[in-house]
Design brief:
- This protein is an alpha+beta fold.
- It has one domain (1-33).
- The chain contains 1 helix and 2 strands, in the order ββα.
- It has one helix at 24-29; strands at 2-3, 10-11.
- The longest helix is centred in the C-terminal third of the chain and has 6 residues, at 24-29.
């Protein structure tokens, strides 16, 4: 598990497919950057 830098929620590691420490939900919300 990792903590998302954006939403501070604990998420499974596989939700962090980007190289920054934000989950895919926040990643998508901010448009993939």
């Amino acid at each position: 598990m990792k903590i998302c830098k954006d939403c501070n929620q604990e998420r499974s590691e596989y939700l962090f497919t980007n190289d920054v420490d934000i989950c895919d939900y926040c990643w998508a919300m901010r448009g993939g950057y």
